[in-house]
Amino acid sequence: MHAIPVYLLLAAVLVTTSLMAAANDGMDAWLEQDEDDRVQLVNEGSLDFIRDAQDRRVLQTRNMLTINPETLNDGWVDLYQCQSNLDPVAAVEVVYRYHELRNLRVISTHNIERAWVERNSVQLQQVQEGGEVCIKAEVQVLKPDGEGGYTLQSGPFHRRFLDGYYPVRLDYRILWPADRLRLASVYPQAQEGFSVHEQSGELHIDTLFEGKLTITTRFSTPLKR
Fold this sequence. Notes:
With 225 residues, the chain is mainly beta. The chain has helices at residues 35-41, 71-74; strands at residues 6-9, 17-22, 48-49, 59-66, 76-86, 89-96, 101-118, 121-140, 143-144, 150-157, 159-161, 164-166, 168-175, 182-187, 194-199, 202-210, 213-220. It has a single domain, classed as Sandwich (Immunoglobulin-like). 5% of the residues lie in helices and 58% in strands.
């Protein structure tokens, strides 16, 4: 029986993505290491922002959420997401665990023989070295905060294998109508290994981390004159 590598990229209250790889003879590269080496490389769940992945395979995740004017009424946000630098495996299931998800479709693949949608998941077959899959969907994740503003929470993002966590490179963006919303706060705050950049109508976060990362963004509405 082969171990099953599990990669999770969830959105906590929202919930984002869970990537579960079912491998056979094309075992994940991690399994080729000695047991003691794997244990030393595993993060047991605490959140650490890091500079260097120390030659380990790093899952690359690009996540873009677009808030439209109508989103302020119904909470539905456009999601564009790519998972790249995937491990070579025979089969991978990407399960999207949002509470509300619709219109999930595969936009593009690279180094993947076949990809298709089944309910709230994307099924991948024969993923080659450096495989990539990109999807679009609509997710109901923008919530009124009861104080006249809105909250959008994503996480916990993590890459899990057995009982540990491996590095994830996350490129996270939110776009919104600048005349309707103002960015009020982002948590975690900017720090080494977690860069936060804002311009009118756009938030960009770039981070390399191990463990579980939840990003909470709060928006205020400009006062009407």
